[in-house]
Amino acid sequence: MIIKEALDNVGGLSNPGKMPGYGWSISARRCDVGGKLADVKGSVCEGCYALKNRYIWNPIQTSLEKRYNAWADNREQWVESMIHLMDNKKMATPHFRWFDSGDIQGKEMLDDIKEVAIRSPHIRFWLPSKEYGLVKDWLKENDCPENLIIRMSAPMINQNINGYKHSSGCYTHDNLYQVKKSTICPAPTQGNQCGDCRKCWSDKITTVNYIAH
What we know:
By secondary structure, this protein is an alpha/beta fold. The chain has one domain (3-157). It is built from six helices and six strands. It has helices spanning 3-10, 33-37, 58-73, 75-87, 107-118, 132-141, and strands at residues 23-24, 95-98, 124-129, 148-153, 167-171, 207-211. Strands 1-2-3-4-5-6 form a six-stranded parallel sheet, with no helix packed on it. Strand 2 (95-98), helix 5 and strand 3 form a beta-alpha-beta unit. Helix 4 runs parallel beside helix 5 (107-118). The chain starts with a helix and ends with a strand.
């Protein structure tokens, strides 16, 4: 399988500018919990970045839908192609993000992401999600690979979330006193770039906290 074919089979990869590697995303319009939170004042999804600006341009939405359809139409081909990309020296990077836009679309998608992680042990995967019930139910039946960090996002700004191995919060500047400095994402202080920070991908960091903007 050549790179071009593999990329087509997964609908292409995203390349988040601030991060150290590639990602895979779908339209935020497909978010279940996030879609409901978008209408809740004070939620982390209110004014969602993936539902405005360039994300709503037709070409971008078309690309995001292409990725979803690539998975939905042929899951086995999607898994094998994603693994091929993770193994290819021209494409593979040590850190990969799932869903810089969108969220998990059911247990079947989590099963496939797990398979990719198991067969790509040289890569650390970060998966932020707000699909609380779905993830809890899935974890009752599955062992999560050590290199897949499913980090559950607190639904409201200035709120903690409990009951998950890895999580994230979002705080306004005047409420950052509630969290340890070592858990705060440093991107806003370094040109909105991850730089050398890999907190989000680390299994040793229970909670990562972001600054609301």
